């Protein structure tokens, strides 16, 4: 088999079908994820271990191959000229090669095009502070972040530095200048790259993912010292996000982190992509803005009170995930069944819808 040619056919098909992901696993035919559903390609035979190895190696450079054989998994971006860009993870399973390829649009969509709440514009207009975009994997965090960064790029003359693993969206310089740094290719670690930004005169910093205590601490410090910092976390709510950040530190450090976070945080967006009635997906967002009440709750370690504050602060632009889901149901954008599947509190959601 000509693996390079077959790989190009699969990638072209993924873009043509508007698939979000392509999966290559031995024992299965190639599988596309379309509108959050996995669909095996019926005309393609099951991939053998030799097939997945050939397809995966066709994606890798010699340097990447060396890293993969050492570490048993690798993340990187891959561009097929004239077709599209992909975020790739290659890994071993049962001793055989496997890969997951996420299609990345060449076009960065605006917050309006993404169907996101208008409140998010408040974060792009800020001059300093800490903004967290959270949610489960594959629920649009990177796409939302790209839309926010590009809005700043189009509206403000500033210096933007991004640290990503891997780079997904490529920004075109507009009013801003943008430096995009990719883990492994441009820097050895998130924390090292983040510390380096202090000598690179940034106005806006975007951290693709906060994976360790050092990165979290440096990001908070950057926000405290006059920078606008955006980052992502794999958490399910604003309260869980605060707890995750604080729990990354030892007991004697936690009060200090709470104090720093209470003063530097601008807000948290916790996002889900919900299957819509038109066959696509639509975002539902919990939004927290840092007010004096929220800052006190964080500082005093009463994070369990945050859901109530969010639910009762709609006049300030906050919204709970259940109220966002209820609004989508009322607008007949999603089914009640879909909303219930993504609700953190099914009983509460039903009550809100019946109001």
Task: Give me some keywords for this one.
about 350 residues; alpha/beta; Beta-Lactamase; 2 domains; 7-stranded mixed sheet; 6-stranded antiparallel sheet; 14 helices
Quick recap:
This protein has about 350 residues and is an alpha/beta fold. The protein has helices at about 5-15, 50-60, 60-70, 120-125, 140-155, 190-195, 215-225, 240-245, 250-265, 290-300, 305-310, 320-330, 335-340, 345-355; strands at about 20-25, 30-35, 35-40, 75-80, 85-95, 95-105, 130-135, 160-165, 175-180, 205, 230-235, 265-275, 280-290. It is built from 14 helices and 13 strands.
Description:
- This protein has 355 residues and is an alpha/beta fold.
- The protein folds into 2 domains: 3-104, Beta-Lactamase; 118-319, 3-Layer(aba) Sandwich (Rossmann fold), CATH 3.40.50.300.
- It is 39% helix and 25% strand.
- It has helices at residues 3-16, 49-59, 62-71, 121-125, 141-155, 190-197, 213-224, 238-247, 251-264, 292-299, 306-311, 321-330, 336-342, 346-354; strands spanning 21-25, 31-34, 37-40, 73-80, 84-93, 96-104, 129-134, 159-164, 177-182, 204-207, 228-233, 265-275, 281-289.
- The strands form 2 sheets. A 7-stranded mixed beta sheet has the order 9-8-10-11-7-12-13, with helices on both faces. It has a 6-stranded antiparallel beta sheet with strand order 3-2-1-6-5-4.
- Strand 12 and strand 13 (281-289) form a beta hairpin.
- The chain is globular and about 65 Å long.
- 39% of the residues are buried.
- The model has no long low-confidence stretch (mean pLDDT 94).
